[in-house]
Amino acid sequence: MLQTLRTPGDTKWFVQDRFGMFIHWGLYSMPARHEWVRHNEKITNEVYDEKYFKHFDPDLYDPDRWAEAAANAGMKYFVITTKHHEGFCLWDSKFTDYKATNTPAKRDLLKPMVDAFRKRGLKVGLYHSLIDWHHEHSVIDTKIGPYRELSDADRAKMNKGRDQLKYAKHLQNQTRELLTKFGKIDVLWYDFSYPDKEHPDDPTLGKNKKAWQSETLYKLIRKLQPHIILDDRLDLPSGWDIKTPEQFQPRGWVLHEGKPVVWEACQTFSGSWGYHRDETSWKSPAQLVQMLIDTVSKGGNLLMNVGPTSRGEFDERALDALKSYGEWMRRHSRSVYGCTQAPEEFKTPQDCRLTYNPKTKRMYVHIFAWPFVELHMDGFKDKVEYAQLLNDGSEVFISQRPDWQQHHKTAGESAGSITVRLPVQKPNVTVPVVELFLK
Ligand code: GLC
Question: 231 in ligand 1 pocket by Cβ < 6 Å?
Answer without folding.
Answer: no
